[in-house]
């Protein structure tokens, strides 16, 4: 069923009806996560600590389940022509927590995220994220955040790609804030190419505040890889600006 027909089906719901439906969706989200992520940790153990398959479980089972439960239809473009045989750093704008599900679902490679350190304390999710090598950063401590980002170099050595939201926080739909330089320092230090990605519509499906889920279409578009070999740290903010401009252009193209 398309998101459009789903929207028509739920369009007659009252405020109380939406609250009941969202409560059921929240219970599903908690149950789905509580059951699936511990199973992924068991797979990690059976795989001898190799993260490939537990991460792919998030891509192929966990994320699609949550997107379906939210009534979200994902439309992806620009990914088919890219070469994912080597690790890259994905940078995307950030409207909603559901962005993580969208990126997991669309990227055809095992993906680790740069996440705010509060998520490390979330039951089940924090345990899974730490086991998968997710990078937790302290947003209010720039020096510590830079040091923590440096830990991601080991992920590249394992052939894993890393995704970050360089705005540093979720923004309002239609607005893309300035990009902070931390993840671009990592890209230059490691010589890892950057893949700019735009996400449009996720803020309407799951807004920043509360759990007010509404069915809708989420469009995600990939640009061309931006090479970082040969760049110096003095180029970091220019690189951040270039990537932000690329994400904005991709977003605008998604709207046409």
Please list the strands of the largest sheet in the order they lie side by side.
1-7-6-2-5-3-4
Q: Characterize the overall form.
A: globular
Distance between the termini: 24 Å
Oligomeric nature of the chains: single chain
Helix content: 40-55%
What's the mean pLDDT score? 88
Radius of gyration using CA atoms only: 18 Å
Structure overview:
It is built from ten helices and seven strands. It is α/β, with parallel strands linked by helices. Strand 3, helix 5 and strand 4 form a beta-alpha-beta unit. The longest helix is centred in the first third of the chain and has 32 residues. The N terminus is likely disordered.
Helices and strands in order, then pairings?
Elements: H1 3-10, H2 15-46, H3 52-70, E1 72-77, E2 89-92, H4 98-106, E3 111-116, H5 125-131, E4 135-137, H6 142-150, H7 153-157, E5 161-164, H8 182-190, E6 194-200, H9 202-205, E7 216-222, H10 236-255
Parallel strand pairs: 1-7, 2-5, 2-6, 3-4, 3-5
Antiparallel strand pairs: 6-7
Helix pairs in contact: 2-3, 3-4, 6-8
Which features does this protein show?
256 residues; alpha/beta; 7-stranded mixed β-sheet; 7 strands; 48% helix
Concise synopsis of the structure shown:
With 256 residues, this protein is of the alpha/beta class.
């Amino acid at each position: 069923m398309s998101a459009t027909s789903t929207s028509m089906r739920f369009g007659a719901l009252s405020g109380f009806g939406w609250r009941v439906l969202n409560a059921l969706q929240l219970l599903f989200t908690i149950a789905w996560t509580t059951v699936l992520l511990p199973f992924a940790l068991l797979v990690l153990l059976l795989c001898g600590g190799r993260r490939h398959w537990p991460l792919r479980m998030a891509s192929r089972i966990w994320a699609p389940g949550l997107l379906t439960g939210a009534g979200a239809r994902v439309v992806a473009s620009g990914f088919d022509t890219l070469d994912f045989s080597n690790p890259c750093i994905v940078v995307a704008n950030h409207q909603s927590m559901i962005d993580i599900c969208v990126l997991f679902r669309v990227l055809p490679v095992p993906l680790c995220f740069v996440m705010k350190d509060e998520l490390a304390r979330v039951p089940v999710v924090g345990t899974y994220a730490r086991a998968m090598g997710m990078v937790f950063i302290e947003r209010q401590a720039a020096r510590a955040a830079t040091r923590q980002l440096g830990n991601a170099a080991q992920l590249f050595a394992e052939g894993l790609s890393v995704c970050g939201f360089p705005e540093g926080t979720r923004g309002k739909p239609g607005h893309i804030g300035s990009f902070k330089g931390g993840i671009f320092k990592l890209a230059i230090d490691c010589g890892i190419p950057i893949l700019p990605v735009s996400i449009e519509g996720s803020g309407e499906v799951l807004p920043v505040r509360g759990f007010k889920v509404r069915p809708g279409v989420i469009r995600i578009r990939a640009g061309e890889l931006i090479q970082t070999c040969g760049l110096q740290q003095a180029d970091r903010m220019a690189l951040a600006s270039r990537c932000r401009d690329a994400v904005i252009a991709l977003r605008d193209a998604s709207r046409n």
